[in-house]
Amino acid sequence: MTGPTAVLWDWDNTLVDGWAAIESGLAATFRAFGMPVWDRTQVLANVRGSLRDTFPGMFGAEWERARDIFYAGVKACHLDVVAPMPGAAAAIAAAGRLVPQGVVSNKQGPLLRAEAAHLGWAGHFGALVGAGDAAADKPDPAPMLMALSAMGVEPSPGIWYVGDTALDMQAARRAGFVAVLLGDAGHDGGIATAAPDLHFADGDVLAEALLALAKG
Questions:
Q1: CB under 8 Å, gap of 24 or more: what pairs does 130-136 form?
Q2: Is the pTM of this model over 0.90?
Q3: Any long-range contacts for 111-117 (C-beta under 8 Å, 24+ apart)?
Q4: Residue 112 and residue 134 in contact, taking contact as beta carbons nearer than 8 Å
Q5: Number of CB atoms found within 10 A of residue 154's CB
Q6: Predicted local confidence at residue 44, as pLDDT
Q7: Which of 12, 71, 115, 136 has the most neighbouring CB atoms within 10 Å?
């Protein structure tokens, strides 16, 4: 395995568990629109794209009202519930010993940056790019290129994009990067559906691999 030239991370369900806030925001939105509320399993199965890419199809002409309700619900609790995924801190530390790293997420940029600061992680990343920061959101390459520019890193095939869904793997390939799956993608059709270039069971396993590369 060849080591990365830089690492870009997805955020939710890759580095952090923030699903409780997302679930709360969606529940408030669905109730306001008289729609059935999703349980956690449905949230995990359906939340992939950014809000600006998905809400117009879900709420039609009133998608902006839905957006405002959703964000109000998330902002009310997200810093209280966000927590690191298993091994995430170790993986971030290991990557930081090797190469520059950043985050590219479909979580709204200000929410992403607030969570990174809350966890004390912001200093690990040369860029924290969220939905709405670039001209388009993941899986478009635009936010990845924005992050690399902020990091002072030229795009190259040696960059790793680490995520937990098939959409993340698609985003990596569209940008010409190595598609790295963290976890088993059980909420997204499994490893075979995601079809990653590299796969690690969790953050601790990824950290061990990165530390081995650093020693090598």
A1: 130/11, 130/105, 130/106, 131/50, 131/51, 131/52, 131/105, 131/106, 131/107, 132/50, 132/52, 132/108, 133/109
A2: yes
A3: 111/71, 111/74, 111/75, 111/78, 112/11, 114/78, 114/79, 115/11, 115/16, 115/18, 115/78, 115/79, 115/82
A4: no
A5: 10
A6: 86
A7: 115
